[in-house]
Amino acid sequence: MSTGSGADSAPAPATHDTEARTDSRKPSMFSSLKIRNYRLFFTGQVVSNTGTWMQRIAQDWLVLSLTGSATAVGITTALQFLPMLLFGLYGGVLVDRLPKRKLLFFTQAAMGLTGAALGVLTLTGHVQVWHVYLTAFLLGLVTVVDNPARQTFVSEMVGKDQLANAVSLNSANFQSARLVGPAVAGVLITAVGSGWAFLLNGVSFLAPLAGLALMRTTELHRVDRAPRGKGQLKEGLKYVAGRPELIWPIVLVGFIGTFGFNFPIWLSAFVDDVFGGDAGTYGLLNTLMAAGSLTGALLAARRATSRLRLLVGAALAFGVLEIVASFAPAFWLFAALLVPIGMLGLTVNVTANSSVQMATDPVMRGRVMALFMMVFTGGTPIGAPLVGWITDTYGARIGFAAGGLIAALAAATVGLILARVGGLRLKVGMHHGHPQVRFVPRERLATAA
Q1: First to last CA, the chain
Q2: Using only C-alpha atoms, what is the Rg of the chain?
Q3: Helix (H) or strand (E) holding 437
Q4: FRET label pair with 215: which of 323, 335, 363, 426, CA 20 to 30 Å apart?
Q5: What whole-number distance in Å separates Cα of residue 62 and Cα of residue 369?
Q6: pLDDT above 70: residue 435
Q7: Are 249 and 311 in contact (CB under 8 A)?
Q8: In the chain, pLDDT over 70 holds for what percent of residues?
Q9: Residue 409 φ/ψ region, left for φ over 0, alpha for ψ in the -120 to 50 degree band, beta for the rest
């Protein structure tokens, strides 16, 4: 067991190939699950994540059924993420100051209660759209603290050497639940209605609460907490702004999260307006995307490094594939393209997450990850209503294509900035008879000249 903040490395400087290295040895895919505390955490999250995905599908479909509007779905999503935009950085300050395990007891219980309350309202026939809006906003308030607490608690459970692997497995966990949750939600909605999906989600949070209670606190890696003081929010922003290996990945995931990840709006619109499907079809599309995301997470768990050039490449391909999928003429082609879109989207998220965490001083990690989550999910209140309006006004295909175009342009721009910061230049040439585009150090070009 590590003691003191020496268990974690100091911030990694930007290098020529602009990457944050985690360990020179290639990890096994499930290596962090050998740690008992993380295994308990992982198991509890499998159950609650499944319930969370059930609620997401049921919530989107309930709002669409009550209003018939993609904009209303966008408003629901926006309300859920608005608190992160408004208060996300303050959540990070709290997480850096307070014991993360105790915080998670509170947040996980509160999230379970919101699901149960919406379930009771729906099953008793009293649910209205404003109830869903209110529940989404309250859930978002809890998430302000829960997200950075869960993100940073991972390092206390597994330590520095297993952090990248555990971050990838967390994503694999979430995406595994995404395979099961939408399918179960589709069956429940069709058979007995949305209320049972909400209620079961509330009950599912008993699992992570049990996992937290059973942990051995003596086996946690101690991380120094930030003392209470003035100016900590400004200190966190200044810390990120002075490090290109932090600020530009965060900027990129902000654009991707705000404009490229509005799938509840797009998929519900494609099912309802383009392909004429039902709740089962909507669940199927989410399941296919989750299959791709799970593949991306498992591949990430095998990588020993988190390269920012991989982040940029995956983000660019993600945006391009969204544009291609938006004009797919047949349902089967659209559905098939969701698999690689899910894989690339997950690769973007995991690579950015692990790169940022590994390059951050432990005492600042709560604030940095709060900023990360704020721009990734907190931009949704801006992007979701806008994307919902475009989708309602110009159709599902144009709405999806617009999101993909913005994601691709953001990836290309950030890639060029990171290359410049890292002392790289674009080189176009031939390799084994094929055209090749890559970044190389400026000094190599000068030598060749």
Answers
A1: 53
A2: 22
A3: strand 434-441
A4: 363
A5: 32
A6: no
A7: yes
A8: 84
A9: alpha
